[in-house]
Design goal:
361 residues; alpha/beta; Aspartate Aminotransferase, domain 1; Aspartate Aminotransferase, domain 2; 12 helices; 16% strand
Length: 361
């Protein structure tokens, strides 16, 4: 066997060495999962029927994305050439940044927001420009518009936003698009089903507007990794050059039409979450905990200096929540996903017990 005479190993690009790392706090999740904003119950029963019919022979073939993209396009009222299915919305963001962010470009973000925008941008040579929201976490429209420069290449906006639950109005989105014609305006509608308002109908009408959606939240398909990126045809041709042709697996593609077809299930689940959110917010108010208005399937709560202990005690009580204290402007904050009304009754019991114990100290 040949022996290597050196201990020097190949080094990655300097930009990769400088990238921010993201380590999701997974570990054991054998509890009520209120930490990742997933569907807390199940996917549609129709999806389970499809899974039961998939043969092992089907797994020997490479996935074919285009036929299912046509189904999704019809469902969303778009042309197939206006969208691409992705391996979760994370791949959509990653591919978008790889396609459009170059050296000396700027990614403009209103923070706090989805962590992965900055993570994926850090793999490029672009500069991240962050605009801090005020204490009420309302979208900082005027400061963000003021921060637009000729170098602004992408403006990424989560609507509703995570971890705050705040929203951006249609008029504000249109004004931002007009103010930055040289930039791609990404509207990430991951939590659309809990808000009910979209700008998807503006695809192709606003030339620099694109929309991302995920099937990981209301649809309950987080484990299958499915997202969609929609934009003008001339824009999507560049995305397809960067996008791997086989990044969306066959099982996910087989299940998606069934998930889309079961609108009654989505209506039921989102209705259940909205009712549970109202009840849980009332419980937070009764416990005299500060919270922010949410248009998504989670609520951001101000726990204060005991945020880490609160998170630990809730886990010990069988309820997982997400400490967001390290996010910009979120010191002491914890984000709590909203599940069904029955699940949130369990969460309220754990919350009240935990808060009482913390206040006793």
């Amino acid at each position: 066997m040949t022996e290597f005479l050196t201990t020097i190993s190949p080094a990655p690009r300097a930009r990769v060495r400088a990238m921010k790392e993201y380590h999701p706090p997974l570990g054991s999740r054998d509890a009520l999962r209120l930490d990742f904003n997933e569907n807390t119950l199940a996917c549609s029963p129709k999806v389970r029927e499809v899974l039961a019919r998939i043969s092992t022979g089907e797994l020997t073939r490479y996935p074919e994305r285009e036929p299912i993209e046509a189904v999704v396009a019809s469902y969303l009222g778009l042309e197939p050439a206006q969208l691409a299915l992705t391996n979760g919305v994370d791949e959509a963001i990653h591919v978008l940044f790889q396609a459009f962010l170059d050296s000396d470009d700027e990614l403009l973000l209103a923070v706090p927001t989805y962590t992965m925008y900055e993570v994926y941008a850090s793999s490029t040579d672009a500069r991240v420009v962050a605009v801090q929201a005020a204490n009420d976490f309302a979208f900082p429209f005027e400061p963000l518009r003021t921060a637009i420069t000729p170098r602004t290449k992408i403006i990424a906006i989560a609507n509703p936003n995570s971890p705050t639950g705040s929203i951006v109005s249609r008029a504000q989105i249109l004004e931002i698009a007009r103010s930055a014609p040289q930039a791609v305006i990404l509207i990430d509608e991951a939590y659309y089903h809990f808000h009910g308002e979209t700008v998807l109908d503006l695809i192709g009408k606003v030339p620099n507007l694109i929309v991302a959606r995920t099937f990981s939240k209301a649809y309950g398909l987080a484990g299958l990794r499915l997202g969609v990126l929609a934009g003008p045809v001339e824009f999507m041709q560049w995305i397809r050059r960067v996008l791997s042709p086989y990044s969306v697996n066959s099982i996910a593609l087989a299940c998606l039409p069934a998930a889309l077809a079961d609108q009654p299930y989505i209506d039921w689940y989102t209705g259940e979450v909205l009712a549970a959110r109202a009840e849980f917010e009332a419980a937070l108010d009764a416990a005299h905990l500060r919270r922010w208005p949410s248009h998504a399937n989670f609520v951001l709560v101000d726990i204060g200096p005991q945020h880490a202990e609160f998170t630990r005690r809730m886990r010990d009580a069988g309820v997982l929540v997400r400490d967001r204290s390290s996010d910009p402007g979120c010191d002491g904050c914890v984000r709590i996903t909203i599940g069904t009304r029955q699940q949130m009754q369990q969460a309220v019991e754990a919350l009240n017990t935990t808060i009482a114990a913390l206040r006793a100290h």
